[in-house]
Design brief:
This protein is mostly helical. It folds into two domains: about 80 residues, Orthogonal Bundle (Arc Repressor Mutant, subunit A); about 30 residues. About 60% of the residues lie in helices and about 10% in strands. The protein is built from six helices and two strands; from the N terminus they run αααααββα. The termini are far apart.
Length: about 130
């Protein structure tokens, strides 16, 4: 991923790039998310690990990153005889989009503030003085 904004703007970006750009998600996280999107029903971590051909602990870490980013939801399923397990499903895309738009708006406001601070800090004192003549 390019480091500077200028490099990012020159690069072709696909919608999956948003996952990395906004949340720093890894390739495995994107694969897990896609598996959950493609699944007919919510999946357990074990089912997800099998689908992406990774160890359970590795898939679990990806699930935790996706949960933290708000891309998936966790649901508890109770056994009749007691006990429970968790299943995971994707969050509604419109909710994810609204969250990314909010983050982008916050970022834009922060960048605008930093640009103003830059201008104020480096503005030449004599540039605002009246011209004598």
């Amino acid at each position: 991923m390019p480091n500077s904004m200028a490099e990012q703007l020159q690069q072709d970006m696909e919608c999956e790039g948003l996952l990395e750009c906004f949340h720093g998600l890894k390739q495995l996280d994107k694969e897990c998310f896609q598996e959950l999107v493609d699944a007919a029903e919510p999946l357990t971590v074990d089912e997800l690990a099998e689908a992406v051909d990774r160890e359970r602990s590795t898939a679990y870490r990806a699930v935790q990153r996706l949960l933290q980013a708000g891309f998936i939801q966790k649901e508890q399923v109770n056994y009749e005889q007691g006990g429970y397990y968790h299943v995971y499903s994707p969050t509604d895309p419109s909710k994810i989009s609204k969250n990314m738009q909010r983050m982008l708006n916050d970022w834009y406001a922060k960048m605008g503030q930093l640009i103003q601070e830059f201008e104020t800090k480096y503005e030449r004192a004599d540039a605002t003085a009246p011209i004598e003549g």
